[in-house]
Amino acid sequence: MPQNLARYPIVPSIVELVTNVSQIPSFSFVSGPLRHYPNTETSYPIRIHFIVNGDIQIPPDATQVFPLHYVQKDTDVILYRHPIIGKIQAKLLMKDLMTTPFIEVNKTYFKFLRFPIGNVSAPGTHLTNIIFLKLLEKNLSPLHSGCVTSKATDGILLIAPPNTGKTTTVFNLVLYEGFELVSEDITVVSEKDAYSCPFTSTYFHSVPVSKELKKLGLLTKVDQFNMIANSILNKFPVLPSIFERPFDPLKLLNTVRSTLQTKISYIFILKKGSSDRVNKINSSHIAREMIDLNRFEFSYYKDPLLLSYGYHHPEYNLWSFMKRECEIISSLANNADCFSIECTNSMDFATKIVSVVG
Q1: What are phi and psi of 189, to 5 degrees?
Q2: pTM of the prediction?
Q3: Residues 260 and 12: beta-carbon distance below 8 Å
């Protein structure tokens, strides 16, 4: 075990990561460098180890069961080995999935596969999927959503397809309508409550949001430089995934009003349309759309590593986890007032939401 390990909150008070690296590409729960969140608990119900080492040896008693996947007899160890060029190989070892998961990757895999290429996932994607499963074990589910709250309304969950205006709406509500920030891209939910994932930073890629944050003095000079650099990289395919400059969300988190947990009272699904309208909708309709969006954004249910593990450990069946995810989301929708909002301009979503919740 490497000596230079550090502990980082991923979902404060719920998920902790122990690792020897400071940043993990393609890790959905944290954009950019891993960070510490002030005033969070030191005891976490979910702890995961993610270790990068020079090389990983395939045990001599390991047998190949699926293409590129190996199991070690009488253990819960799964190994993945994928040739890259010649003798250069990407390697990953996973064990103790049912208790305290341990993931080890070699430096080649970690450094050179920073984003999915064909059917090969980046190590950060596997880590994201493992955390998703561990949360489902606790009857919690990640949800592609934003969330705000206030004493008057409790939590408001915002659901939307990519590039609809969800992040812009979150920050319009927080910066100008008096709401507290819970999360802006991923929210962990139970059947009634929402928990913050504070280390995503998709708002830095939103032109309207970044302009407002800059105007309010909530961006560091480094972040402003990185925004310019990334805008140039975005003009060239693939380059952003390799060279993208990271952002630091701590200044924002330490400045705006925020909270780590709230009860959900309202769920809004945001849609771009040819007219402006608000409709109350039934819970089953919005639950289906929430599940569809989750299937688009997350991939735990088709992760070859987890499918291979479930094949050899039937008690860890991915179908049962998918069912649990659906049950959590459906119960959450049943416990909230659900609305659909269509706007021709994404800047108008926040005003419509305020008109509903008062």
Answers
A1: -125, 150
A2: 0.89
A3: yes
